[in-house]
Write a structure and sequence with these properties.
Layout lengths: L1 E3 H4 L11 H9 L4 E6 L9 E13 L5 E8 L19 E6 L9 E5 L4 E2 L3 E2 L3 E3 L2 E3 L2 E2 L2 H4 L24 H4 L6 E5 L10 H12 L22 E4 L10 E10 L9 H9 L7 H13 L4 E4 L7 E5 L5 E3 L5 E3 L5 E5 L2 E5 L3 E2 L12 E8 L1 H11 L4 H8 L6 H16 L2 E2 L4 E4 L6 E5 L2 H6 L5 H11 L2 E3 L4 E5 L10 H12 L19 H15 L3 E2 L5 E2 L1 H7 L18 E2 L4 H13 L5 E8 L21 H9 L6 E8 L10 H14 L4 E5 L5 E11 L4 E8 L1 H6 L7 E6 H7 L15 E10 L4 H12 L3 E10 L8 E10 L8 H19 L2 E2 L1
Parallel strand pairs: 13-16, 28-31
Antiparallel strand pairs: 1-12, 2-12, 3-4, 3-6, 4-5, 6-11, 7-8, 9-10, 14-22, 14-23, 14-24, 15-22, 16-19, 17-18, 19-20, 20-21, 25-27, 26-27, 29-30, 31-32, 32-36, 33-34, 34-35, 35-36, 37-39, 37-40, 38-39
Main location: cytoplasm
Subcellular location: Cytoplasm
Catalytic activity: tRNA(Phe) + L-phenylalanine + ATP = L-phenylalanyl-tRNA(Phe) + AMP + diphosphate + H(+)
Length: 836
């Protein structure tokens, strides 16, 4: 929301010398977020003045282009030029070459003189072009940075302006003004207006506020205005889609009248393009009061206006010239011809105000928030009007906004207002909130005096009764978000000042610290980070295809309102999101990556969600909570890692590195992890390990990702990955990990190369060697897998290093050899292994 400061000063006591930064600094105090500063003069400098074309000679050029050699007077006739500098003519007549052709002799135009600087750091200086020295430039709106029109220069008469020659364009077009842009949170829709921001500025500074919504409404509704009926047969949440509809008619408007420059300047600075006088008035009133308006060509209306829900299969052609099929939940504005607007979202083309319109019907209505929001999303029709209606518009301001529009159309367009108006609907019952006097202090942690509580609530615009132990509070009509005592406590804290709330760290109860799982998780994350991996956090939203590939068909949760249709499901595995992070880093030039993530995956059961949501303000019963929890997906914690590019030694990562990550995770938790040959559709066949606990529970997979997946995802070859069920690791972890004592006796190392079938998994052979070697074996590891020359077809040679050590003596060579032979015998019996 952009707030031009000159506009804000009409309703709030903003000092004349205050900048946009100063205004935002005050608004931050009451919880509004600053976004940006818009100051046209920041990109413009130097002499930019009003000039008049006193002569114009068209000169055809050899390139086929015709230029205008102009003499332009930039001071009143008979006056002397006061500006000095290169290219400034003392008599005030500048020779200027111009390529535009939308002006004639006698037109007043905008002249940028030598020394001026335009947006993009474009400096104006005398320059020789087309055989002339052009001392300045006649400017278009785009060149000035105040519009997009670049086909012709700005002719001031078309703007309804006839200023004196030499007048500063900064003052003439309001380029001296500035705007503060703030971010409005969804619960504070009233701040989508100058009225709302002025009130918040007054709250922040303790200064006066003048409410613009205090116009007298003439005439009152007497039943003789344009006929309107509200017939909502399908209310949402038992609330009518429309509970107020104000209609006023203004006749005989003159469409040839341009919008006044003060209005155009303010709208431009607010980020709104000037279109025509009626459209500009509609936008101006909406920005000022927060009430969206819609203007209809009254001559195109057929019969009474009826607000109703759409019929099945009904269609409408909206102002963007698109024909839309309506839903039975859509709230419509209709007449005898059918739909003429999607209520609160966009009007219909059949009753659009055009350049030939002379009679206008003004609509100022109040619509239900949920209904408007659903229609806007359903038809993908975001608009300034729907943005406000979705967040709640002041019910009481509709007639005032209509009157403001009537006054502007009469004053600026020469219209005549009909003597009768229409105002139908029923005022919603105001919610009465019970606020215990001690509740704000207990909730916020700051002692509020009764005076602070009552003053804050009344400053909000609420009516307050009661005292002592409890207050009865009725929220103002522009704050539909205030529904509970917690809302009121927050508002009191906001107005008294967030800076007054003390920072108090909670004190941990004696004898308590991190839980067992919290300690294990910290130990795991620290170990992975210490090993060189970098922790990242990916979005939990993935595509259906990714879930099916990595989750292997596990049921997934589909999002009702995804940020992107492509990523419309909650993840059932961590790797898809982690791979997206890898791809993003690769696209930014990072080639050697070691990334890991721990996060929840979402595995729904038979029950998904609940049929109803319990109301706010009261703790649900245990039965209701059980029903809610039953519908929540199981969310185990998973660990995943991806390694791609080169390792610190300069070699490419391989599947063994992925296994090392898995074994490191298990080791720091005191868990024994087993790996066997596995298969997974996302992993390379033959280079994939299935990981399980000693009891046989499968908890993960590791290895090299499938070449087809890597090619489709634009990932480097030999990208390896691992994913583990971290919760399963934590459950299997030892409560106390006892470090092995370091023996003072030397180790005896013996290697063995075994010839086995190519189908035998190396991991299973390793486990057989471990069991067969006996208690003297300290460690066994695979160091070679050879299948080349000298190895029979269908066979492979697996070489293992065996480390033997005793705790009480130095082993003899015979003891080590005997243990080695026992291991080989076990391998021969289990797999037919033969020493090579």
């Amino acid at each position: 929301m952009r707030i031009p400061l000159t506009w804000l000063r009409e309703f709030a006591a903003v000092p004349a010398e205050a900048t946009a930064e100063d205004v935002m600094a005050e608004l931050v105090k009451v919880g509004l977020e600053e976004e940006a500063v818009h100051r046209p003069s920041d990109s413009l400098s130097g002499p930019i003045v009003v000039g008049q074309v006193i002569s114009l000679v068209k000169e055809p050029q050899s390139n086929g282009k015709t230029i205008n050699w102009c003499q332009v007077r930039v001071v009143p006739e008979g006056s002397t030029q006061t500006l000095e500098g290169e290219g400034i003519s003392p008599d005030g007549v500048q020779g200027i070459v111009c390529g535009a052709h939308n002006f004639v002799e006698g037109d007043k135009v905008i002249v940028t003189l030598p020394g001026a600087v335009l947006p993009g750091d474009f400096k104006i200086s005398p320059r020789k072009t087309y055989g002339h020295v052009s001392a300045g430039m006649i400017a278009s709106s785009r060149e000035l940075g105040i519009g997009q029109d670049h086909d012709g220069i700005v002719v001031l008469s078309t703007l309804g302006l006839d200023p004196e020659l030499g007048t500063s364009v900064y003052e003439l077009l309001g380029l001296h003004d500035q705007a503060a842009e703030i971010n409005v949170t969804p619960d504070r829709g009233y701040c989508f207006s100058i009225r709302g921001i002025a009130r918040e500025y007054a709250h922040a500074t303790g200064t006066a506020f003048t409410d613009p919504a205090s116009l007298p409404v003439v005439p009152p509704s007497d039943g003789q205005g344009y006929p309107v009926r509200i017939e909502d047969a399908a209310p949402i949440h038992s609330k009518p889609g429309a509970d107020r509809f104000v209609a006023r008619v203004v006749r005989g408007i003159d469409q040839s009248v341009p919008s006044p420059q003060w209005m155009v300047s303010r709208l431009r600075l607010a980020g709104i393009r000037s279109i025509s006088l009626p459209v500009d008035i509609s936008n101006y009133v909406m920005w000022e009061l927060g009430q969206p308006l819609h203007f209809y060509d009254a001559d195109k209306l057929r019969g009474a206006i009826v607000v109703r829900r759409a019929a099945a299969g009904e269609t409408i052609t909206t102002l963007d010239e698109k024909t839309r099929t309506l839903d039975v939940e859509d709230l419509l504005i209709t007449d005898d011809s059918g739909p003429i607007g999607v209520a609160g979202v966009m009007g219909g083309a059949s009753t659009e105000v055009s350049a030939e319109t002379t009679d206008i019907l003004i609509e100022a209505a109040h619509f239900e928030e949920v209904s408007i929001g659903r229609s806007r999303r359903r038809h993908k029709l975001p608009s300034e009007a729907s943005k406000r209606f979705e967040r709640g518009v002041d019910w009481r301001v509709a007639d005032i906004a209509a009157q403001r529009a009537v006054d502007l159309l009469v004053e600026l367009a020469g219209g005549v207002a009909d003597p009768h108006g229409t105002d139908v609907g029923v005022e919603p019952e105001a919610a009465l909130i019970e606020l215990p006097a001690d509740y704000p202090s207990a909730r916020i942690g700051l002692d509020f005096s009764p005076e602070q509580i009552e003053t804050s609530l009344r400053d909000l615009g609420a009516s307050v009764s009661g005292s002592g132990s409890s207050y009865q509070v009725t929220a103002p009509s522009w704050r539909p978000d205030l529904e509970t005592k917690d809302d009121l406590a927050e508002e009191i804290a906001r107005l008294v000042g967030y800076d007054k709330i003390p920072s108090v760290l909670p004190v941990a109860p004696p004898g308590r610290g991190l839980t067992r799982v919290q300690q294990q998780r910290r130990r795991l994350l620290q170990a992975l980070a210490d090993s060189g991996l970098i922790e990242v956090s990916a979005y939990p939203f993935v595509s259906k295809a990714a879930n099916e590939l990595f989750g292997q068909g596990v049921k997934a949760v589909k999002l009702a309102n995804p940020l992107s249709e492509e990523f419309g499901y909650l993840r059932t595995a961590v790797l898809p999101g982690l791979l997206e992070v890898v791809k993003r880093n690769l696209s930014r030039g990072f080639r050697d990556l070691q990334l890991f993530e721990t996060g929840a995956v979402f595995l729904p059961g038979e029950t998904m969600g609940t049929s109803s949501i319990p109301p706010l303000g009261a703790r649900p019963s245990d039965e209701v909570l059980d029903g809610l929890y039953d519908g929540v997906p199981d969310q185990p914690l998973h660990l995943a890692a991806v390694l791609t590019g080169k390792n610190p030694g300069g070699a490419a990562w391989d599947y063994a590195d992925a296994l090392d990550v898995a074994f490191l995770a298990a080791e720091v938790l005191g868990v024994e992890l087993l790996s066997v040959q596995g298969s997974h559709p996302a992993f390379h066949p033959g280079r994939t390990a299935q990981l399980s606990l000693r009891d046989g529970t499968v908890i993960g997979v590791a290895g090299e990702l499938h070449p087809k997946l890597l090619a489709e995802s634009d990932l480097p070859e030999r990208t390896v990955a691992v994913e583990l069920d971290a919760d399963a690791l934590f459950a299997a972890a030892a409560d106390v990990i006892v470090a092995k004592s370091i023996s003072s006796f030397p180790v005896a190392t013996q290697d063995v190369a075994l010839l086995v079938s190519a189908e035998v998994p190396a991991g299973e052979l390793l486990e057989v060697l471990r069991a067969g070697a006996g208690e003297l074996l300290e460690d066994v590891s695979l160091f070679d897998d050879y299948r080349g020359v000298g190895i029979p077809e269908g066979k492979k040679s697996l070489a293992f290093g065996l480390r033997f050590r005793a705790d009480d003596r130095t082993l003899t060579a015979e003891e080590a050899t005997e243990a080695r032979q026992a291991a080989v015998s076990a391998a021969a019996e289990a797999f037919g292994a033969v020493l090579r």
